[in-house]
Amino acid sequence: MKSLKLLLMLCAFPFISLAGDGVCNMKKAKKVFSKCAACHSVNKGGATILGPNLFGVVGRESGAVQSFPYSPALIDYKKTWTEAELHKFIENPMKVVPGTMMAFRGLKKIEDRNAVICLLEENK
Ligand code: HEC
To answer: What's the whole-number mean pLDDT along residues 59-65?
Structure first.
């Protein structure tokens, strides 16, 4: 019974976050984003580091930062960065966009991706 409850909670959690109803664990988000921050700024008008500035990335077309020299792979990807697309990409960038310059092995844990996507949504 206990494990069933746990299972139900685990199933419900991603939906709660995907629905975007304000469930954002900022402490966790900042910790997870520190992995991205080596290459990405997320503040408005933030610098290009190794990757493009991620301010406003949720809902944006992929490859849309004019000043950033994207790889042909990402230019050809042509997706809108919805929460679902971000989940897919961030879980395994090099598999989802073969040839991407984003040399990052990905966030395998859904709670890590939820936290970081939540942070991205806050920055728009
Ligand atoms: C080693 C550096 C590096 C790390 C670490 C990194 N990225 Fe990236 N990221 C890049 C580069 C470079 C690109 C551009 C990829 C291309 O053009 O193929 C990119 C592209 C992206 C894009 C697409 C942006 C657009 O405008 O289409 C998203 C979203 C993104 N990264 C999110 C993240 C998140 C979230 C993390 C942390 C979990 C992260 N990245 C970690 C280097 C990195």
So the answer is: 97
pLDDT for res 12:
52
Please report the pLDDT score of residue 19 as a whole number: 42
The distance in angstroms from the start CA to the end CA of the chain is 42
- Pocket around ligand 1 at a 6 A CB cut-off: 35-36, 38-40, 50-52, 54, 57, 62-65, 70-71, 73-74, 81, 86, 90, 100-104, 107, 116
Cβ atoms of 90 and 74 within 8 Å: the answer is no
Query: Ligand 1 pocket check: which of 28, 32, 40, 108 to mutate, most ligand atoms within 8 Å of Cβ?
Result: 40
